Amino acid sequence: MMEWLVAPGPASVELANTVGKKLDAKLLDVEVRVFPDGESVINVVGEVTNKRVLLLQSLYPPVDTHLIQALMLSHRLSQDGAEVYVAMPYLGYARQDKEFVQGEIVSVGVIARLLRAVGVKRLVTVDIHSIEGLGHFSFPTFSLSAFPLLAEYVKKNYRLERAVAASPDLGGSARIEAFARVLGIEHFVLKKSRDRKTGDVTVEGESIPELDGKDVIFVDDIISTGTSICRGAEVLKKSNPRSLYAVCTHPLLVDGALDRLYEVGIKEVIGTNTIPGPISKIDVAPLYSEYFSSVD
Ligand code: R5P
What we know:
This protein is of the alpha/beta class.
């Protein structure tokens, strides 16, 4: 197996430790201080010249701080002669992958240029919002999928009866298929629309299958404010399901999202540790260690 050094970015220290152990890699010493004005100062200790370094840093809030820290770290490591591979388990800014409204900046394209400028050789994320987002990068990229792991968790831990998986929107079609396949259950997709200016979400109650007495599992890549799933739950509750669950890869859970999900009747919410937090029960470290142990 190829020898790795691991640089734990401040947003992903625990994950970096686990991945480092699995890869039998030495961890670099990364010291970070954030000044009262928000600026970061970073020290990296360790010899990296001509070495392969895996830098782990997820881009959850504070997104811009975590982004600049990743850029600083990669810049330093590549200047010191390392080959820098970056793992960004949650790739912030990836939802803005096209100019939805005239004049909007395609943020993921900016991220791609910045990462290239600081010498990144390859980027590996988990469940990027849409695979088209990777088309903005001019160097190799890969998106791992946590949905089989989420499905395995559900299989082991929930006592479901006549379960059915629901995607809050059409963009989640491939994700829900991957999830439902592992569980061998049916799935359907709700029709969600978002006002691109105000951000308001509407979910339509058309083409919902028979749900009476069934357990419904919402499946999404990101739960941010929880609005998409809450609106979906309000619509589905009219069809009398036995229970509602929600699983996602990236539990951003901003603005009291978790409380709102419970209030609307979601029995349990789970996510992965691409974003650490109280419901981040699924560990994505095995996905990363498997991927990087086979890089030649
Ligand atoms: C959007 O298309 C994504 O797949 C998620 O559905 C969305 O980001 C969730 O955001 P929120 O929880 O704020 O509705």
